[in-house]
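Friendly challenge for the regulars: who can give me the structure tokens for this chain first? No prize, just bragging rights.
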Amino acid sequence: MRRRPFILGLIWVTAMLWLGLCVTNSFEAFLGLSFIVGATTVTPQLMLPLVADMAPAHRKASSLSITTSGLMLGMLIARLLSGIVANYTSWRTIYWVSFGAQYAILILLFFFLPDYPSKNPDGLNYFRALWTIVTMLFTEPVLVQACLIGFFISAIFTSFWTTLTFLLASPPYEYSSITIGLFSLIGIAAICGGPVYGRLIMDRYVPFLSSVLGQVVIFVGCVVGAFTGEFTVAGPVVQAICIDMGIQTAQTANRTSIYTINAKARNRVNTAYMVCVFCGQLTGTAVGNRLYAQGGWKYSGGASVGFIGLSIIITMLKGPRETRWVGWSGGHKLRRDDVAKKPEPVSPEDGRGTMRAEGEEETTGEKRPETGADHSVAR
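First reply, four minutes later:
Bragging rights claimed.
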């Protein structure tokens, strides 16, 4: 399926369903529409594989980092806006704002989103596509490792931001909803630095390095926040910065890694990964709420420490260049050696209007004259 009409159609359907959320007075209808909207609001997960398809190999990681930064920035700004709006107006107001934002996105993409060809021109049917997703979870060690890491770090993210509201609204803080919403601003600086890190580090080193570094940062933040959050607000501030920075780094590393599995199946690979991420988010919300109700901030924070500990163990079971499920036989080299050379402009005679990597063979069928040949013969 061509991605332009599919993406535009999904946004339009989501916006129309969202209108029902804005006007309905029935709780059952609201729940039903929310469930359907959750199934159609998948446009970001279609854009990420598209970015991986478009970006050159030596800029893939930094390009994904920019896109991931926008995705996380959107979630944080949504928390900020909802806190401010809920403090001064009705809860429906933020739904109307979201409705307008979706139509604004639809209009912008209608004019600026190019029409890319289908990655499945042979017409792989829906059920076979679903089956290939299942089989990849049993045949692709890189994907399974990334899914497990994504599950645990996503659980940490939702557990923290959900229980943080309870912590800041209770003694000794007793902050208002607008003040709690302003906490979202804490992670913006860390997220905005993601593209710079992606350009300097991720484009040059294997994803394993960034994944480990990101998880270590999350671990430090969880430990500091869990044991200091109840008596100083500095603990949650440090934890928020570390979690946002670490999760963005690890998520980008995971996607850079899994998008190398099969260039023609990046949407299916991304689907498998995001299912695990969403399951982690649901698990983190449920576990965080339950543990906070039982034992407070330390209980939920302790669960986050346990989650990131398991994630780091899973990461270290498989080396940066290991192709099997477990082991380090592939070596310890962290510098990337599979990145294409910087592209050079294609000459006007090529007529393709694109960039070609150095040493890449032409596909026009015309043979180029060899360098160093004696052109005096042509006279």
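The chain has two domains: 1-115, 128-339. Confidence is low (pLDDT under 50) at residues 340-379. Your move, everyone else.
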